[in-house]
Each structure stands twice: as structure tokens, then as C-alpha cells.
Amino acid sequence: MMKDNIFDVQEYAKVARQAAAEGAVLLKNDNNVLPLAPKSKVALFGRAQFNYYKSGTGSGGMVNTRYVVGISEALEGEGGYLIDQTVKKHYEEWLKDHPYEAGNGWAKEPWFQEEMPLTEELVERARQDNDTAIIIIGRTAGEDKDNVAEAGSYYLTEIEEDMLKKVCGVFERTIVLLNVGNIIDMSWVKKYNPASVIYLWQGGQEGGNGALDVLTGKVNPCGKLTDTIAKEISDYPSSANYGNPTRNLYVEDIYVGYRYFETFAKDRVLYPFGYGLSYTTFSIQSRAIYQDDLKVAVDVAVTNTGNMAGKEVVQVYCEAPQGKLGKPKRVLAGFAKSKLLSPGESQDLRIEIPLGTLSSYDDSGVTGYKSAWVLEEGSYGFYVGGNVREASLAGSITIESLKLIEQLQEALAPVTEFERMRPGKDGQLSFEKVPLRTIDPKKTREKKLPPAKEYTGDLGYKLADVESGKVSMDTFLSQLSDEDLCCIIRGEGMSSPKVTPGTAGAFGGVTESLKSFGLPVACCADGPSGIRMDCGSLAFALPIGTCLACTWNMELVEELFRYEGLELRRNKIDNLLGPGMNIHRHPLNGRNFEYFSEDPLLTGKMAVAQLQGMHKYGVTGTIKHFACNNQESNRYDVEAVVSERALREIYLKGFEIAVKEGGAYSIMTSYNPVNGLWTSSNYDLVTTILRKQWGYKGIVMTDWFAKGNDEGEEASPQNVAAMVRAQNDLYMVVLDAKKNSGNDNLAEALEKGTTSRGEFLRSAANICNYLLTTLAWRRQQGIFSQLDEQLTKSLEEDDGIIQNMIPLDVDKCATLSGDLINTQKGESTHLQVTIQEAGYYRLEITCKAMEDISELAQIPLSIFLNQNFVKTITLTGSDKIWRTEIIDFEEPVLQNTYFIKLYFGLGGMEIKDLKIVKIK
Ligand code: BGC
Q1: Molecular function terms in GO for this entry (predicted)?
Q2: 856 vs 585, residue with greater confidence
Q3: Which residue has a Cα nearest atom 7 of ligand 1?
Q4: Can you tell me whether residue 508 is helix, strand or coil?
């Protein structure tokens, strides 16, 4: 457990390492090839041994780390294994001509790196000298970059297959390690029959160490798949519709993942949901099922029947009666992970399942209760075991007559006709029409909310007066002018100079006027697997969401996120933009790596664990992307056409759990439209469901530069007024809230009354209530705990955190005096440059050699832009007259914040000034 609230990076690393190890899923282990014997001689194949993927790509993968331990370093280093040097040298030679290809820019990273072809001779020779072969296969994908059903992404390449064929043909002891963010095609396992296969996922900066622990048996594998691995990609029920650039029909409805396979296509599964082997064996005996009016309790005794200590995940699935609605054969109803059990040791676990969680959502009224959660009458069977396929019947309960669990109101229903899957009378796959919208949401939305109080002008009240109870929030907010109300909606970023450098967003007191009312500026940063600071500051990179979910270990994940919470607090960041919690609807979604599972219960519980960890330290996470961000291709526009039932039971369920059990108070809407309306401007989603039905009290923010629309209209990032009407409080992000640099329609809507002052005030209240919970608020109030003092001290001593950034606001041209630049040997100066007008810019540095420097001295100055090297200028000691060095930034720059680093490899330079000038 965490010691005395101290931010101890070594302890943090230990927990992350344990999580990476517990997230690893062992699919196969013939003849106990694993764990590796201590003196094993190992030949490592696959170039991924030289480039470990710590995470996927895009905003969720941009954590600058101090180190990343890959698998081979861990094996050879701490593991002390004898790694075949001849094979290694072959790779090293080959890599000279086939260097790692990073791709050029956002979403341009290749999914895989070209593999080295193996000769039979090399493999044969390796076999003579080694007893074991480890083959590593790597893949990446991520934001704005889906996987594709092609070789090199979902499928192996020919060279990779050839590597498996040759190595598995010669070695008996073969272990395949998958360093991937998503599940990939696994048909090759049968073809080449390696002895062992492990999904290691992308384990963050401690990933290699986690892998080592699993390979050596220090951690007995106990990860379980959070997705079904099917025989073929076309077997996934969403395959026919996935990837459509404009409209994605959710025909499979609630039959996502194992819900589909267990109900309709059992024989299409290679590895079932919840599957994962151990080096030991377990017996799971379920003892009893108790039922009272509110819950079912399943008592389970889990015993280690093998001869090595290990942990087991006990999973309980429910089979509800088919009733009128039709049900999946299995639905995960609860789970628990055992403690570390020694051989022969048993543990009793009680898994409690609230009755309501077994209910189904009737979106048609066929049960007599439209728009309601109901428990249909009949027998509910509970299956207990180590994965969905093997779980066996432990008992059942009977619901005598239909129970209404919660009567709600229609919301977010589809407007496009389509048919959805359901079991037919004989249990075979059949289809039915999806119930369409019957209530025009305009009727709810168009009601203009009157302000609680008329505009009063400044009465001298500050936000602190609301906290102390001196005035109500309504009275306080009635002082805000129309302009203030527009500005409070606008979050600023990326990398706002008002908050921790390099973070994604700032909101709250972003203008002088808002500040004068006592609003602090809150800071949010990506997420989800560590803190992203684009200025180059270092942070800790955690295992990806899928890996964490595969641990099925809530305590461990919570513990890890306590460290994350401390790290956020240390960096003065109030809010991590994560967890990502969209459902793994299809294996090709590039962002699956950030998300947890195909199952909503597990998804919700993982989010709860992360939130609770962070809440311990007064910071929070933003659960995202609400909702149905299930494909990256054309994510800005692709419409999710989905039934209310599938939304409630699958796509919104995890969020509901995070709100109700995890106390989430910050949510990010997604880019895409759902059933005709973009989510940021979707009143049904953001107000009716989230706030009215779930009782959510926090803030809702858009995804960065998102669009909104009014029903039937085109969407645009400028239609922020529609977002405010829906009660999406914050538009993220603009460069300058006061200047309305995003050119939004807020002021116009307020003036014309198309969005009322009351609606603006409602969001302003949400934002202010949120601000009162933040560390930014505490700091503004001068509240520093001992913990804050310790954290600040440790931050100041941390050379990985870039301190003292010099802000430079560039309105066509800006000048920085040379006095502010430390030119001593080994020193760096960091500038945070905010460009007000997009265009082509150049840097002009007027410099010379210092007087006392010898004529032949070389005086280098290296310049970096956003961490990328741009140029080195080298003066000589004879350059004693001022000269202006010009560095053209060849690419046009956008209105945004950029980071420039000046690094002085040797001292001796004097700088008169530095200018940033717009040239066109
Ligand atoms: C992503 C979000 C992220 C935001 C800020 C967007 O592109 O979709 O998940 O939090 O950028 O970086």
C-alpha cells in the first residue's frame, strides 16, 4: 500500500509493473514451457524487441517518460537471461538499413515495423545454442488511426508468418509475446502451434518489467481477456457496418462481443471472454445463492489446486429469461479477484449482484413498460467460473412476475429505420424493427430557461462568498455580464500559458473579468495513461486501459491511480482527461487501447477504480468519450445509429456506473453524432439522461474543437450556442476566450435569445460548482496542506519537469530581451509562445561571442520546436560583433501555443534579443 501519501516514483513504478504483469493474458502454455527456468538460454526473434510500444498513438500516447523498459532490456538486464548474441547481432546489422520508422506527425505512425526475414540457417544455429525461442510481435494504432483488416495491422505480415513458421518448426519451446493495443487475428496459433502465447498489450514505461515477471513466474499470470477473440474478423457482429464513413448502423444491438457469440455463434470463438491461463490450476466451487428483495449473493470458494501460488478471477454470468425482450445467453453480473493463493489454499468470496443490474431496458413497450428497466418474469440462472464459456450453473432465482425497476422517459431514440438482432422463437438469430423516436426532443429543448435572477452588474461578491454561504450561486452569477457568460463557456488551449505548461486545457477564470470575480483557472491534461505535457516535462506512463482492465483487479487499479492522483496534484493539474471508456465494439477501433472492454460492467468498474484512486488526492478524471466514439475513421462526422436499448445496456452503462458508483463529476462528450445530433449539442444525452435521470452534478466539456448542431442542421464548431442549450457546459478549446478566437455564435445567440441567459447561467453554475472542488481553488484561497508543500518541493527538485517557462505572446511580432536567456554551458531556456495569427513565422536571434572568449572557440546554440530539433547555430570566438541569425519555420503555424527550447551546449554566447516575426 501507498506509504504516507508520498510521491515516491519507485513505489509508483512497482505498482505499475504489477499492473502490467497482472494485465498479461496467457492464452497457451503447452508442456509448461513457462515460466522460464532461471538459466534458460533464449534466442529473441522479432524486431519489436528493439522498439517496445508503451502505448498507442495520439493524445492518449503522448506522455514524455524518463525511461521505458522494453521486453528484451528486462530479460537481459534485470532478468539476467543469456540472450543469444548472434541472433541479436543479425538484427542489429539489419536494423542499420531498416531503422525504426516513426512516421511524420499526428496519426502518421505506421501500424507495424517491417520485420527482418529469417534464414533457416540462422534459426537452426540458434536452436543449437538455445533451449527457448521468444518471438515478439508489435502493433500500434490509436487516435485518428484505426486498425485495418490487412497484413501489418490486424493480420500478420508474410514475413512475420514466415518467422513463426521457421522458429516454431525448429524450436520445441517457443513463446510468442504480443505487444499490441488491440486484439489481433489469432488464426496463426493453430497453424504454427507455438508452445506459449501471451497478450502483453502495451504496458507503459514499466511494461518490459511486467513482462519479465510473468515470464519468470514472479507474477503468476492472472490476466483475463476483456474481449472475445473470434475465429475471423467477419465473425464480429458489427463487422458488416463498422467503418462506414457516414452512418454506422448498430444492427447487433445489445449483442456485442460475448453477448453475441454465446447466444448465436458459440463455434466462432477462439478464445472466450474472460479467458486466461495460469501456471497453476484452480477449482471454483459456488456455494449458495441468496436473494433478498434487492440483491443476489453468490458465495464462491476458490482453491489453488496446482503447485504454484497464483490469483484467480471469479466471474459470475447471468442468463435471464428470454421473456418478450429477448436476452443474451450470458451477461457478466459480477466478478472478484482472489488474493494470492498458495498451493492448496482456498478463499471464500461473496459476489453481490444488485437485482436491478440484471434488468433489461424496454425501448418498445412490449413488456407493458416503455422506456423502463424491467426484470421479466422467469428463472435467472447464475453461472460461475474462470471465463464465460466454462462458467457453470451455480443456481438460479425466480422472479414470479415482471418487476418494474425504473420507469424513465424516452431519450436519444433513433430516427433512422433499421433492423436489429434478437433471438427468434427457436433461439436462432433473427431481426426486428428498432423502435423509433416518438417524442420530438425539440419540445423539451426549445423551452427557454429564464434566468433565476436578472443581471445586476458587479455587486462586489466573489466566488468565495458562495462557498462561505454568504450569497447563493444565483446571486453571485447574476453579476456576470453577457460577455462574461460567453467567456466562461470557452476553455482555452492547447497548452494555455495560464496553467501547467503543455497541458490540454484551461477553464474557469480565463479572462481578467472572470478572474476579478474570484474564479480560479482549472487545468486539465491528457490522459488516460499518464500525464501529457507537450512542453517536454516528464511524467509516468501507465499501462494502457485494456491492459489494466485485463487485470480485473479493482484494488490494484485504484492503487495505481492514487499515484496518478498524486502526480496530477504535484503538477498542479486538476483533471486528467480519462479514463476513456467506450465499448470495444469492434477490434479495428484504433482507440480500443485506451478503452477497457466489450463489456459495460467491467468498463464501469474500472473507471470507478481509477476515479476513486484520483479522488483520494482531490483531483479527478474526465470520463470520455460520451458516447459511441467507437471508430476513429471519420470520427468527427460518423453517425452512430443505435437503439435506446443498446445505448442503455451497453454504450451508456459504463458511464452510468462511473457516475453513480464512482462519483464522476467531469465528462467529455464525443465528436460524433448519435441518432442525428452531435453529442455535444444532444440535450437528451447530456441533460435528460445524464443529469435528470442519473443525477449527475458535474461539468460536461466537449472534445477538443468538437462540432455541434441543431436538429436537421449542419454541424459546426462555431455552434456553441447549441451546446449550451444541451447543457454541455464547456467548449474546448479556443486560444483566447475574450477575443472569441474560435469565432463562435455565443454572443449572437444570447443577444437574439436563441440561447437564453438562463441557459448560460445554468452552465456557469455547473462550472463554478466544479471550480470550488479543484486544487486551483484551494491554491487561490491560500490553502496549502503539508502534502502540497511536499509535492511542490519534490516538483522543484525534479529536473524532468520544465520550470520557469517564459511566456511570449506573439501578435505578428514579439521580442524577448537577451537578459532573460541564460546562455551558460548546459543551460536551457524554455519559451511558451502563443501565436495569435496563423501564418509563416521566423525566429531572429541577435547574438555574438562574449568578449573574453578565444578566437577559435566554438559556441553552439541548439533550437528545438515542440521538442523537435530544428537547428544548431554555431558561433566562433571571433564573432564579436552582433549578428542576427534567422531560423525560418518552414511549415505554417496555426493560432496556438508552441514551445521553443534554446539549449547551450557550451557557454560563451551573448544574446541581445530574440524576435518571433510573422513573415506572411
Ligand atoms: C481527443 C481527446 C483528448 C483531446 C485533448 C482529442 O483529440 O479525442 O480524447 O482528450 O483531444 O488532447
Answers
A1: beta-glucosidase activity
A2: 585
A3: 704
A4: strand
pLDDT digits (tens, 9 = 90+) for 336-387: 999 999 999 999 999 999 999 999 999 999 999 999 999 999 999 999 999 9
Helices then strands, each counted (H, E), the chain: 24, 42
Tell me the per-residue pLDDT of 384-407, one tens digit each, with 9 for 90 and over.
Answer: 999 999 999 999 999 999 999 999
CB of 626 shorter than 6 A to ligand 1: no
Q: Is 628 in the pocket of ligand 1 (CB under 6 A)?
A: no
Q: What is the mean pLDDT of residues 124-153?
A: 97
Ligand 1 geometric centre to CA of 528 (Å):
10
CA distances 5 to 1, 539, 541, 786, Å, are 10, 18, 20, 10
Contact 845, 873 (CB under 8 A): yes
Q: Which of 672-676, 698-702, 889-893 has the lowest mean pLDDT?
A: 889-893
Mean pLDDT on 521-550: 97
pLDDT band at 145 (very low <50, low <70, confident <90, very high): very high
Number of separate domains in the chain: 2
Closest-CA residue, ligand 1 atom 8, reads 703
- Our answer on whether the CB atom of 703 is closer than 6 Å to any ligand 1 atom is yes
CATH code at position 43: 3.40.50.1700
Please report, rounded to a whole number, the percentage of residues in the chain having pLDDT higher than 90: 91
Q: How far is the CA of 59 from the centre of ligand 1 (A)?
A: 6
Pocket test for ligand 1, best of 704, 707, 896, 897 (most atoms within 8 A of CB): 704
- Tell me the pLDDT tens digit for each residue of 762-772: 999 999 999 99
Q: How confident is the model at residue 890 (pLDDT cuts 50, 70, 90)?
A: confident
Residues 455-475: tens digit of each pLDDT = 999 999 999 999 999 999 999
Q: Is 703 one of the annotated active-site residues of the chain?
A: yes
Identify the domain boundary among 221, 241, 275. 221
Report the pLDDT value the prediction gives residue 129, as an integer from 0 to 100: 96
Q: What's the confidence (pLDDT) of residue 868?
A: 86
d(CA 676, CA 412): 9
Residue 624 Cβ < 6 Å to ligand 1 = yes
pLDDT at 446 over 70: no
Q: How far apart are CA 447 and CA 437, in angstroms?
A: 19
Q: How confident is the model at residue 2 (pLDDT cuts 50, 70, 90)?
A: low
Is the CB–ligand 1 distance for residue 375 below 6 Å? Answer: no
| Catalytic residue (choose from 253, 703, 736, 879) | 703
Q: From the CB of 704, is ligand 1 less than 6 Å away?
A: yes
Residue 653 lies in a domain: no
Atom of ligand 1 nearest to the CA of 578: 10
Q: Is residue 32 part of a domain?
A: yes
With the most atoms of ligand 1 within 8 angstroms of its CB, the residue from 595, 703, 733 to mutate is: 703
Q: What is the CATH number of the domain that holds 816?
A: 2.60.120.260
- For 448-458, b/e burial (b = at least 16 CB within 10 A) is eeebbbeeeee
Whether 59 lines ligand 1, by a CB cut-off of 6 Å, is yes
Residue 339 and residue 785: Cα distance in Å, rounded?
35
Q: What is the mean pLDDT of residues 495-502?
A: 93
Domain-ending residue, one of 188, 221, 254: 221
Pocket test for ligand 1, best of 57, 62, 143 (most atoms within 8 A of CB): 143
Please check whether residue 201 lies inside any domain of the structure. yes
Distances (CA, A) of 351 to 78, 227, 599, 600, 602: 39, 22, 18, 17, 14
What is the rounded average pLDDT of the residues 589-617?
98
Contact 743, 735 (CB under 8 A): no
Residue 879 CB–ligand 1 contact under 6 Å = no
- Atom index in ligand 1 nearest the CA of residue 624 equals 9
Which residue lies with its CA nearest to atom 4 of ligand 1? 704
Instruction: Classify 416 as helix, strand or coil.
Output: coil
Cα 30 to ligand 1 centre (Å): 42
- For residue 825, the enclosing domain spans 806-918
Bond prior to 35 in cis (omega within 30° of 0): yes
Does residue 760's CB lie within 6 angstroms of at least one atom of ligand 1? no
Instruction: Give just the sign of the alpha carbon dihedral 528, 534, 539, 543.
Output: positive
359, part of any domain: no
